[in-house]
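User: Could you write out the 3D structure of this protein bound to adenosine-5'-triphosphate? I've included everything you need below.
Assistant: Certainly. Input first, then the structure.
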Amino acid sequence: MSHLATGEPLSVQEVTVSFSGSAVLQGATVLVPEGGFTGIIGPNGSGKSTLLRSIARLLAPDGGAIVIGDDDIARLPRRELARRLALVEQNVTTDIDLTALQVVLLGRIPHQSAWQGSSEVDRAIALHHLEKVGMADKADRSWHRLSGGEQQRVQLARAFAQEPTVLALDEPTNHLDIAHALQLLATVQHIGLTVVAALHDLNLAAMFCDHLMVLHEGRVMSSGAPEEVLTPELLRAVYGVEASVEPNPITGRVAISFYPPTVSH
Ligand SMILES: Nc1ncnc2c1ncn2[C@@H]1O[C@H](COP(=O)(O)OP(=O)(O)OP(=O)(O)O)[C@@H](O)[C@H]1O
C-alpha cells in the first residue's frame, strides 16, 4: 500500500495578483514549514482563493514567487508540480459522468505514463483513500448523485491519492457537518504533509492550525500562532465584529465567542 509522501516547505514570497488592473493580492508573503498546517483566514473577497489558485499555478501572479522545497513552481513541469502539490477547490463540478472511485483515480494521473492508464495498484490506493474519508461504500456511486459534503470528501480522497507533499485546500469544510469537519481537519493536521487551507470558521482554524495568516483587502494583516493572531482587536479591525477570545481549558486552544451586532430598526 502507498505511503503519503512527507511534506516540503512552501514559501509564498511577495505575491501580487491583479484582475483588469486592480490588485486583488498585494505582496502576500507566508512560509509554511515542512509538515505545518497554515490557515488562511479573512473576509469574503479578501483574496484567499486567489492565493490558493496562485499556489497551484492556476493563476500566474504579476509579481513574487511561490517556492516548494527549493523549486520555484513557475519553472516546474506541470506533471512534476502535480506530483508535489494537490489543490482541492470549492464546489468542483464536472460534466462527465464519473463514479466516486473514478474521481479519486484522477489523482493518480500524474503518476502514470501516458499509455499506461490506471493499474491495480492505483485502484488499491484510490480505494484506500476513499476508505480514509469514509466513502468506500459509495465508490461506485455517480459523482452527480453524491451530496455536497460527500463530493467534498471524495475530492479530498482524490488529493490524497495524488500523494503530494503540499496540500492546498479551499474551504474544505464548507459542506461538511460538524463531525465530518472535525474529522477532516484532524486528518489533515496529522497527515505529515504541508497543508495550507482557506477557512471561514475561525474556531476550527484556531483548533487545528499551528499558524494563521489573515488577509484583508489583498494584504496580509497579521500572521502567527492562532493565540497571537485572533485577538478581539483584529476581529474588530478585519471583520468589524465584536468578540471575546479565551483559551479553552480542555483543548488549550483559543476559542472565540461572538456577540450579535447592533441592528437598527
Ligand atoms: N477571475 C477573476 N476576475 C476578476 N476578479 C476576480 C477574479 N477572481 C477573483 N476576483 C476578485 O478578487 C477578489 C478576491 O477574490 P477571492 O475569490 O480570492 O476571495 P476569497 O477571500 O476567496 O473570498 P470568499 O471568502 O468569498 O471565498 C474578489 O473581489 C473577486 O471578485
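The CA atoms of residues 22 and 60 lie 15 Å apart.
User: Perfect, thank you.
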